[in-house]
Design brief:
Oligomer: single chain
Radius of gyration: 14 Å
Helix content: 10-25%
Number of helices: 2
Distance between the termini: 54 Å
Shape: globular
Order of helices and strands: EEEEEHEHEE
Length: about 110
């Protein structure tokens, strides 16, 4: 009996208030706790900055619509930013084996 496994996208999302509005940090759950380095760049996903609440793709997408500044880390998080037409695929930062993008919403 073959069983199809459904892989649910799970993100760790941190909401922070900033002088400019909501800052949202959306990270692939599987990337939390790891450190990525390449060419003098480092993303330390073990820091408190990345520790937040588990959310589904739908929950994260809803919050993203209200955010003014968004950090997206990991292929699924960056992919969500692309899907929502917030991230230009040509402007993605690669650090080791992880991708990262930042979005500023004007207004």
């Amino acid at each position: 009996k073959n069983q199809l496994k459904i892989f649910k996208m799970v993100f760790i999302v941190v909401q922070k208030k900033s002088p400019y509005g909501l800052l949202l940090v959306v990270t692939d759950k599987t990337a939390i706790g790891h450190i990525f380095k390449e060419n003098g760049l480092q993303l330390d996903l073990s820091k408190d900055f990345y520790k937040g609440d588990e959310m589904s793709k739908e929950q994260a997408a809803e919050l993203i619509q209200r955010a003014r500044h968004i950090h997206l880390t990991g292929s699924k998080a960056v992919g969500l930013g692309i899907e929502l037409e917030l991230v230009d695929p040509g402007r993605i930062l690669h650090v080791g084996k992880i991708v990262h993008a930042e979005v500023m919403i004007e207004g």
